[in-house]
Amino acid sequence: MTFDEAITDSDRFAKRHLLLGNGFSIACRADIFHYGSLYAQADFSNVPEVQAVFEALGTQDFEAAIRALENAARILPAYVPHGAVAIAKMQEHAAALKEILVQTIAGNHPNIPPDIADEKFWACRRFLANFLAGPKAGCVFTLNYDLLLYWTLMHGDMPSGEPIPLTKNDGFGNDEDEPDAEYVVWQGETNAHSASIMFLHGALHLFDSGKELLKYTWIRKGIPLVEQAREAIARNAYPLFVAEGTSAQKKSKIRHNAYLYQGFKQLTANLQQGRHCVFIYGHSLAANDDHILVRIGRGHFRKLYVGIYGDPDTEDNQRIMKRAQELAAMRHERWPLEVSFYDAASANVWGGP
Prior knowledge:
Layout: H1 3-9, E1 15-20, H2 23-28, H3 30-33, H4 35-41, H5 50-57, H6 62-75, H7 84-108, H8 118-132, E2 137-142, H9 148-154, E3 172-173, E4 183-186, H10 189-192, E5 197-199, E6 202-208, E7 213-216, H11 218-221, H12 225-234, E8 239-241, H13 247-255, H14 258-271, E9 276-281, H15 290-297, E10 303-308, H16 315-329, E11 338-343
């Protein structure tokens, strides 16, 4: 079905929620956010051996390479009793790849919102209004690290059009000890239940200071967020990122961070609502995000709408559709899950060409 048809069909549910994958960012700037683009821009000069890992796997997917290195480091002792040096090097290179991924995203990210046409932001705000405005407004959960969603929420509407009142509470606010600080802080679990935007895997503008989670803002510091992130990374202060290789490793990191775990719990709680529905846009339903996807299979909500980009008969799309049906098959008979697929291109998330 078309996206509009899916939205019409979903009117029978009390709330709509949205889960965003990397296809959301790729649809805006494929030249930057596609793994192939990131790989081409990455600097592997300090760990040149890792390029052989990508080549051996036949991929440019950073998470796949990280997962392979970490798995190999666990397996190697069974075959090479005296391979401690190689094991340590694999673990070191897996950690280095995570940092290279962060550095590459920050280094190639659009500098400021005006680098993206207003028309794209306006189109995206209209898309998000299906989930963050009106009586059906639910939550938007994103697995992306970049700033595109945040920029869209902060962007103004078309001057000649009707304003779009998006709910954009992300759980951050003034530091009660430093209300005039150049950043805002996560308000903690108590004040986070009303949040409608959650970065499930962290993001470029979220930094863990050790005692609290900070959100960098442009309005308080007057310095573009990407520039702030780059300056921090140059000081070896890395943003909150979940770039682990496997789903189990991602889940472990999420459980050890209060903000990430609250987002995970909030997602889970909403998936338990029998009168809600969920849309997925830009996600391949890959196994390395099973810590998220399995919650769909264990949920109580009644309808899942999955975006399919391009020919539905391609191998990748057939795999996505099969995986979605597998999630539905996990359901208890009391809470059956209906799955429909919509044409992702028809959502016009970032407008026309």
